[in-house]
């Protein structure tokens, strides 16, 4: 089983119609990753705190429909976090957030994950918003120490980070040492600063960089470097594309055991899955059958 920890929220996506018209869509990087894993056919579980309001119920219904295990989900009466994406002409998105007093940031450290769990992924707002951020950090450390494959996706949202220097230091010294794989976008890399060699030296065995229309590249601690081209598609928007990459990486990597990783295959699979996500409005990752040759 692959466990994804982090926020589930509602994206208020701009739509055609009256000025300011917004459509509520399920979202949140970790939520999208868990949803994508379920659709890809992986045995996946979501680990978060989700509101008992109507939005929270709809979020869980989406995961349930994808076959995602919800036994690790905590519930609370607080409202669901809201995100308002703004779309650029190329389909890329930036975000504003409504996070005060919301359910997902009150996540608490759960008991040890089941023995059947073989991978853990964390990222985005859950690494920033306290007190939940400290609980997710503790979860990462604890499960990494017992040998789980761990994927970290910082998915930087500058509007949520009140102390950028403090976050960068925490990322490098308190999170990276416990990550097996660091996946980040070019925008994340520019905001965080540093070099791939610095990140590899801090702990991960591989760094995967997503580069939009330029594809994906991985660097490994053993000195390997591989790239995969992006697939040419008609882009509706890029919401959820990076989260789909997370899911595709986890799905492929968690099945390799201790053997060598076929990185060209892994990256090619991730690029294909992300491209399909980009053809749909909102975070709508593909199903396994859509990725068959």
List the helices and strands and how they pair.
Elements: E1 2-5, E2 9-14, E3 22-27, H1 29-39, E4 44-47, E5 49-51, H2 54-65, E6 74-76, E7 82-87, E8 93-98, E9 119-123, H3 132-145, E10 149-153, H4 164-175, E11 181-185, H5 186-192, H6 196-202, E12 206-210, E13 216-220, E14 225-228, H7 241-253, H8 263-278
Parallel strand pairs: 1-4, 1-9, 2-7, 5-6, 9-10, 10-11, 11-12
Antiparallel strand pairs: 2-3, 7-8, 12-13, 13-14
Helical residues, percent: 25-40%
The biggest beta sheet is recorded as: 8 strands, mixed
Mean pLDDT: 92
Radius of gyration: 17 Å
Structural class: alpha/beta
Can you count the beta strands?
Answer: 14
Largest beta sheet: strand ordering: 4-1-9-10-11-12-13-14
Distance between the termini: 25 Å
List the uncertain runs.
none
Which geometry do the CA atoms define? globular
Order of helices and strands: EEEHEEHEEEEHEHEHHEEEHH
Portion of residues in beta strands equals 15-25%
Care to describe what's here?
The chain is globular. The chain starts with a strand and ends in a 15-residue tail after the last helix. By secondary structure, the chain is α/β, with parallel strands linked by helices. The mean pLDDT is 92. The strands form 3 sheets. The protein has an 8-stranded mixed beta sheet with strand order 4-1-9-10-11-12-13-14, with helices on both faces. A 4-stranded mixed beta sheet has the order 3-2-7-8. A two-stranded parallel sheet has the order 5-6. It is 31% helix and 23% strand. It is built from 8 helices and 14 strands.
Structure, briefly:
The protein is α/β, with parallel strands linked by helices. It has eight helices and 14 strands. The protein has helices at 29-39, 54-65, 132-145, 164-175, 186-192, 196-202, 241-253, 263-278; strands at 2-5, 9-14, 22-27, 44-47, 49-51, 74-76, 82-87, 93-98, 119-123, 149-153, 181-185, 206-210, 216-220, 225-228.
């Amino acid at each position: 089983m692959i466990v994804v920890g982090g926020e589930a929220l509602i994206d208020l996506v701009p739509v055609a119609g009256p000025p300011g018209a917004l459509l509520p869509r399920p979202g949140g990087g970790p939520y999208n990753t868990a949803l994508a894993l379920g659709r890809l056919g992986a045995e996946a579980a979501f680990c978060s705190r989700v509101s008992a309001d109507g939005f929270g119920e709809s979020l869980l219904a989406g995961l349930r429909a994808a076959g995602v295990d919800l036994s690790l989900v905590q519930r609370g009466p607080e409202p669901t976090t809201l995100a308002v994406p703004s779309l650029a002409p190329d389909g890329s998105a930036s975000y504003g957030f409504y996070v005060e007093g919301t359910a997902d940031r009150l996540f608490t450290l759960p008991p040890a994950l089941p023995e059947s769990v073989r991978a853990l992924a964390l990222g985005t707002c859950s690494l920033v918003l306290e007190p939940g951020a400290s609980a997710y950090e503790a979860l990462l450390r604890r499960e990494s120490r017992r040998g789980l494959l761990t994927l970290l996706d910082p998915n930087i949202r500058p509007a949520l980070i009140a102390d950028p220097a403090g976050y960068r230091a925490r990322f490098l010294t308190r999170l990276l040492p416990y990550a097996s794989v660091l996946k980040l976008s070019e925008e994340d890399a520019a905001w965080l600063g540093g070099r791939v060699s610095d990140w590899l030296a801090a702990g991960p065995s591989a760094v995967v960089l997503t580069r939009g229309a330029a594809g994906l590249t991985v660097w490994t601690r053993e000195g390997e470097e591989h790239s995969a081209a992006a697939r040419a598609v008609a882009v509706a928007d890029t919401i959820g594309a990076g989260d789909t990459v997370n899911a595709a990486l986890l799905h492929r990597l968690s099945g390799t055991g201790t053997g060598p990783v076929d990185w060209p295959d892994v990256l090619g699979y991730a690029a294909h899955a992300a491209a399909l996500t980009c053809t749909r409005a909102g975070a709508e990752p593909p199903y396994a059958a859509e990725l068959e040759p």
